[in-house]
C-alpha cells in the first residue's frame, strides 16, 4: 500500500470533500425540482392503487411491490392524520428516490471520469491519486452535467413526480452500480466482499420494487471479471456474460417464483399424501432449505472455499431482501379491502408472483398470429383448499400448435383482429399467409425497437413532438410550427433540445471507448440490458393503451453517464486550442451545462403537475353521482384506481361498492364482493362459490332453443345455480357447460314494492314497468355479465346499481332503455325511457338530481387555468364532463326551462374554458342550448373554432408519412366534424353544416376496391 504524508492526505481529503459537497448540491437541485413539480394527489394509472395500498398495506395487482409499499407506509405516517397529505407524501417517496438516483449517478460518473482525467483507465484502486484543480473541475463538472441531464430527462422526470415503482427501481440500479465501483476500488482489501454482499441485499430489496434492477448483473459481472483478472480474454468476457446471464435467470426463475413453487409442492405432498395439517409442508421445506444452507456454509469453511462462501452469503442476503414479499400473503390472509388475487397461502402466492392472470407471450419460440391450434392439453393444476386437503380446482389449458406454424423469436404472434390490423401498418402482411422470418424481424426492428424504444430514447435527448400518443421525435430541423395543428404545435410537451444532450452523449461514448474500453463496455452493457434487452423480453403487442417510455429509464441512466463523460471528450477536443487546464475545463463544463439547462427549460411546463387535481376530483365526482349504498360497475385502471384512492385514503363515500368488471371474471374477486367493506354490505349475489369458481361458468355460449322464446331472469339464475341439464351443452372436447337458450330476457317487477321504495322520480312514475325486457345481443355471457344478471335478479331494487358512463357499451347488455343519468353514472331502474333510441343518447336525464350533483357537489379544481398542462390522459375526463353538462342543458331546453339551461352552459364554459381544456368532440352538443338561450355568437365561435382545428389537423395527418399511427386522432377529428354538422343542422345553420359535411366527405376514409 502506498504511504502519504499529512499534506498529501489533506489535499486528497479536499477532493473527497468537494466530490461529496457537489454531489449533495446536485441532489438538492433535483429534490427541489421534483418537489416543486410534484403532483399533489394521486395521478392516473397505477398511482391511486399504490398510494392506497401503501397507506393501509393492502395487496395491489401482481406481482406487487412490497418494498415500495412498506416505505410508502412510513412516508404516509408523516401526514399525522391529515389524509389529504398522504398522496403528496407517497409521491415524495418517488421524488426522493429519483434525486438519490441523481446523487449516486453523480458519484458514479466522477469515479469513471477520474480514471480518464488521470490517465489511468481500467480497474484499480485510484483513491490515492489526487487531481489538480483544473482536473477536479473537469471531473466534478462532468458529474454535474451527466447527473442533471438524467434529472431533467423526459421519462425520468415523469416517474419522479408520481407514486409509481420506476423511480425507486432506478435508485436500486444506481446504488448497485455505484457500490460495484466502490468495491472495484477496494477489491484488494481483505474485507472487500462485504460490498458484494451489500449489493446482493440491495438486489433482494429491489425484487420487492421491480425486476428491472436485475438487468444490471451482467455489467456488474464484467466489473468483477476485469478487476479479478490480470489479463482478460475475449473468451473470458463471453464466459462472464454467460454466467452473469445465468445468475439473472436463476434469480428470475429459480428464486423469485422457484422457491415458493417448490414450497408449494412440499405443501401439497405433506398435506394430501402424508396427512399433515395445512402449512406443515411449507415449514418442512423451510427447515430443509435452512439445513442445506447450513451444510453449504459448513462445507465452505472446511474447504476454505472463499468463492462458495461469498456466493452463499450473497444468496442469503438476496433472500433477506426478498422477504419483504412476506407482507403479501400475511396481509392477504387478513382479507383487506384491496386484495388482488387473494394470495393468502403459498399456492395462490405462487400464482400471484407468476402474474398468471395476465397470461403470457411467446419469447424465443412460438406460434405466429394466424397459426391454428391443433389440440389442447391440461397443464399445471390449480389447487384450492377444501376441507382438510388441497383439491384441483382446474387444470390450466395449454394450446398446442403444429411445429410448422411456429418460428424462432416470434414477434407477430397475436391473433387479436385489432392487433393484426396494427401489424399491417408495420409489415406487409397478406391475409391467410404465414409471416416470414424477414417480416417477423422487420416488426421487431421497426416497431418494437424503433418505435417503442429508440423513439423514447430520442424523446429524452433530442426532443418530443407533443403529448399525443405515438408522437414522434422533434429534430432540430423541425422546430417550426407552420401547418401544425394547435394540439401539436402549441403543446407544452413539444420540447426541442436541438439534440444537444445526444451530441454530448455520443462524444462521451466515443471518448470512453477510445480511452477506457473496459469501463465503456460495462456502461454499454448496462445500456443494452436496460434497453434493447427489455424490448426482446417484453415482446410488445402492436398497440398499447399508453406510452411505455417509463420502462426504459435504466437505459436513460446509462446514457447520462456518457453525457457527463462528453464534457471530458469536449475538453480533449479543445486541447489543441486551449492549453490551460483550468480554462479548458471551465469552458467544457459551461458548454456541457447547456444540455441539462435546455432540458430543464423545455421540460418544466409539461412536467409541472403541482396544481393538478383532475384525477382525484374525477373520482370524487363519480362517487358523488351515486345514491347512498350504491353498487358501481367500472372499467379498470383510470376508472377504478382513483376511486380506490378516494375511498381508502380520504374516506370518500365508503358506502359505495366499486365493482371492477374485468375482475368480476375471477372467483377471488366475487368472493370479496360477497364480504362487507366499510359501510358497504355484501353484494346481493345468490351464486355460491361452486357456481363461479375458476373453470366453472367462465362463459355461457348462446345455443338457441326454438321452443324458448324468452327467459325469466330469476328462473334462469336458478337453473344456473342448479347446474340444470336444461342449460347444459357439450363442447367439441366432450366437456359440458351451461348455455343460454335465447337472447331475450325479462325480469318481472313488483311495482307496488318498487313504489314504496320511492326510487322512481315523481316525473317518471308513469314509466314504471311491470316487467323489464331486453335482448342480450351477445353470442356469449361472460362470468362478469352473469354476476350482474344475478344481482339484478336478487337485489329487488334495494340497493342502487350503476354503470360508470365510461364503461364499454358491450357490458351494458342492452339494458340502456332502463338507464337513468344522474351525473357521471347510469342507474338501472325498472322505468323505461320512452324516448330511447338505440343509436341515440343513453340514459334518461334526471334533471334536478343531475343539476344538484354537477352544479353543486362536483369539484373542477383548476380546470379553468390555462397555465396548467393537461396531457392526453388528463383531457379524457373533462370531455366526459362536457358530455354530461350538454345532456343536462339540452334536457332543460327540451323542458322549456331556458333559465336553468343558460345557467348550465355558462357554468360549463366557465369551469372548463377552451383556453385551459380545449374543446373536444362533445362540445358541439352545447351549440343548440346556447342558441336557445340567446348565445348564438358563442355557439358560432365554438363551431368555427372546432371546424378550423379539425380541418388543420386532418390536413396535417393526411400528409404525414406516419399518418397510419394516428388513426385515433383522425377518428376524433372526424367525430368532431360530425358533431359540428349535427349541431349546425339542428339550429338551421346551413353554411356551417355544409362546410363540416364537405370536410367530412373530403377526409372520411373511402372503402377500398
Automatic annotation (TrEMBL):
InterPro entries: GT117_domain-containing (IPR052724), TMEM260-like (IPR021280). The chain crosses the membrane at residues 21-38, 64-81, 88-113, 133-153, 165-183, 195-225, 237-256, 276-295, 307-328, 497-513, 520-538, 550-571, 583-604. It comes from the Bacteria. PANTHER family: TRANSMEMBRANE PROTEIN 260. This is DUF2723 domain-containing protein. The lineage of its organism: Bacteria, Pseudomonadati, Bacteroidota, Cytophagia, Cytophagales. Keywords: Membrane, Transmembrane, Transmembrane helix.
